[in-house]
Amino acid sequence: MNRINISLLKTEDLFKSQNYQFEPLTFEILKTASEIDDIPELHDRLIAATARYLDLPIITNDPVILDSRFVEVLK
After folding, report:
1. pTM here?
2. How many domains does the chain have?
């Protein structure tokens, strides 16, 4: 699997230099996650729920998320 080669501690600089937004994990997103029944892994489901709640597509190559009927994935 291809991964981004960057250490966890260096991500702060990356996020500050790019156009990123941090989204807090709210009860609304947790409620959205509870509706997603085709992504079993919790962390992946929370990522998908955040995108669904914000009505944004996801960029991923994760086959489970790619097959989900709950999110739009950019290919």
Report:
1. 0.79
2. 1
